[in-house]
Amino acid sequence: MSLKMKSKPSIGLDIGHYTIKLVMLDRSPQGWKVHTSLSALTPPNSVRDGSVVDVAAVAATIKGLLKRAGLKNAAAHVSVAGASVVMRNVRIPKMNEQTLRKSIRFEAGRYVPNSPEDSYIEFEILGDTEDGQMDVLIVAAPKQLVDSRLQACTMAGVEVESVDLEPFAAFRALVEANQGIDIANDTIALIDIGAYTTQVSVIHKGNFAITRTINQGGNNLTDALQRYFKLTFEDAEEGKMQLDVRALLDDTKPTENPPLRVLQPQLDELIREMRRSLNFYQSQQTEAGAGGNLSWMLVSGGGAKLPGIADYMSGRLGLKVYPGCILDNPRFSGLSEEIATGPEVSVASGLAMRAHKAA
Asked: Which residue of 80, 150, 166, 192 has the smallest Cβ count within 10 Å?
């Protein structure tokens, strides 16, 4: 969803349940020059199920980020995600874009659980099919969810230029911007592990096929440690990052590390849900008589910082799993030391790239 653009500094603003990230970048001869990459803790209980429920608190945090970035105002690209955000690849009778735009609410009503009147709906025509129809990507998000983020930005003095989907932004930064990745003939999965939810997206030959939301994330692991060892959340989070979950892959010997034993059920449940999402995609392909076996996976988001998580997922899922980090891409330069790893800024970076989409 594109909104009116202004001549202000343009930023990518990722409003998460645990942190809010701000990235400002420009095109460079080598690729992308990051001028600013900052984060701040999201005020407790201010974001719930993707919606901003405490607009004033989130606005104050955004203002603080702008001040640290040396910006008095900005135009932002923001994103939405969550179980209520729907992305469906559908096949419908062939028509031109103008005709489809007039009938999109009727078409979307067959796939969107919320009322089409209460949703923002967009689409992209992917191409014609051999049977005279066409494939269309339909995206719908509840107006309340989108408007709550717009309100927080407005209160912070930020003008929103566009609203994107988090998986689209992550894909832009991690795959499209990486010249070393060729997915023209591949089917890949993009996993973004957030604090409370995990997004599982399957991309077939460069087009999104499915995106599903799992209501589990990195905080489930932290909460398990906190409860078992009676720690503060901060101490449990710090302790979690000292563990290496690759030790759990050796099933031939018992794990003598009590914190790892506490994490394993949570990790395995999250991976079971990932497998269900991937199996759902595979079953759709089988019914349609199409191919598209998964080639490999990328894992990003704050949860991807857990040491050994990519290898653990690879061992449990039987697929190649790579950490999705823009720091691994030589086309990105200038990231600040404040965000020292990079997996958690993939969405904010992909959002910031939208300001240079036509460049």
From this structure: 150
